[in-house]
Amino acid sequence: MNDYEFGNYIYELRKRAGLSQTELAAEIGVTGKAVSKWEVGKAKPGVETIRKLAALFQVSVDELLKKREGGKRPAVTKIVVTGGPCAGKSTAMSWMQNAFTQMGYTVLFVPETATELITGGIAPWTCGTNCDFQKCLLRLQLEKERVYEQAAQSMNVEKVLLICDRGALDNKAYMDSLEFARVLAFLGTNEIELRDRYDAVFHLVTAAKGAEEFYTNVNNTARKETPAEAAALDDKLIAAWTGHPHLRVIDNSTDFENKIKRLIAEVSSFLGEPEPFEIERKFLIEYPDIKWLASLPTCRRVEIIQTYLKSSGDEEIRVRQRGGDGHYIYYLTTKRRISGMKRVEIERRLSGSEYLRLLMNADTSRRQIRKDRYCLTYDNQYFEIDVYPFWNDRAIAEIELSDEAAEIRFPKQIKVIREVTDDESYKNASLARIQEGEGAPNAGKIL
User: Fold this and answer.
1) In this predicted structure, what is the pLDDT of residue 196?
2) Within 13 Å of residue 292, how many CA atoms lie on the same side as its CB?
């Protein structure tokens, strides 16, 4: 019997890498006929060839062996649920366990590392310095996540939701800039890697902001903050995660039960239950005050280079380099339009080598889009302001929503000209299109 599943997997890896069967064969020292047999399920590579394929495609040997033997790896989504003190995380975890188990997920929880250490006697006031404590905390946090991810990948299930009770970048809120730099050096990593290692981040606002009568330290012995300290810490945590591609803030504008229901709805929307819809509204704005944006603690500048790949039909396929200061993360995104605001969007992380290979399949009828994105958290909303080098009078502000009718509240410093959600000329794919005799992209007059 032909093994079509393994053959299709090899085919998908090869196509993602932008290689023909002949090119793949040359890379790993086999014949093109051998590759063809693998892909139609008539043969399977040996262990040594599996090692070469794993190195080439930047996947693990275990993954390829498991696929070869007929095992299926689950789809693992790793998210962070964070928030200020007394925000409702413990209750949220219980609700999420029930809600997403019913949706068919195997739900795993990485427990909060700071609470584990403090209740075990390891704390900033017992270690030599706060920096010493943070080194211990982050090292344990990252190791725990690796263990949980390894366990998740071994499970014989279809999909796993891995929920981190706080993530690695939460710790930035408890350090000054020098301490944070020392911890990054100790770990041999950088802020972008720590921030973007998660698929999404959901922040629950502390009860000390908008629900002060419910703020308490009774239910958590590791919690020492006063309401004022809790509110200030909440702001620092939001600032630490600002810049992540998928950050959502759940405030106290409703009662507690509905606050948790809104969290469940936001996570469900991100997971694409029942389908991966993205609801996005886009606005043409006057060129923003860059100095003002840069001065805000809840704003982060991100450099983006976006390249469109050859595609057919209604699909739009692109690769994106995202980061700054010499540190970048790479993504492959496929989009299909459902309506004006609503699209099906599927995104996955790429290795650096995968990104470079996919660039070889660039659509040469479109230019690369380079822009500075200012990620701004304002009034518990998350704006992305795109500043392009070819405009000096305008920019684009975007916001993703879980509800098409949600109210949008702009800072007074952002001057909205008009909404352009349905205006094709202001979409990146249109701005990238090269037309005969054209200079800089032009989306028409500002009306």
Assistant:
1) 94
2) 8
User: Do 124 and 236 fall into the same domain?
Assistant: yes
Do 219 and 86 belong to one domain? yes
Quick check: is 439 in a domain?
Answer: no
| The Cα angle at residue 300 between residues 296 and 304, in degrees rounded to 5 | 150
**Whether residue 350 is found in the same domain as residue 205:** no
Cβ atoms of 237 and 82 closer than 8 Å: yes
Q: Give which of 164, 171, 295 is closest to 236, Cα–Cα.
A: 171
Q: Which residues contact 445 (CB under 8 A, 6 or more apart)?
A: none
Which two structure tokens, joined as six digits, stand for 329? 């993360």
Residue 221 identity (one-letter amino acid) = T
Residue 328 has pLDDT above 90, yes or no: yes
Distance CA 370, CA 32 (A): 38
Label residue 408 exposed, middle or buried (CB < 10 Å: 0-12, 13-18, 19+): middle
402 vs 306, more confident:
306
Instruction: Name the token pair of 289.
Output: 């005050």
Question: How do beta strands 327-337 and 416-419 pair?
Answer: unpaired
Beta strands in 22-116 (DSSP E): 75-83, 106-110
pLDDT of residue 4: 59
> Phi-psi bin for 417: left (phi > 0), alpha (psi -120 to 50), beta?
alpha
Cα distance between residue 31 and residue 39, in whole Å: 13
What phi and psi, each to the nearest 5 degrees, are found at residue 286?
A: -65, 155
Mean pLDDT of 197-219: 90
Q: Report the candidate in 309, 289, 291, 280 with the shortest Cα–Cα distance to residue 382.
A: 280
**196 in Cβ contact with 80 (< 8 Å):** no
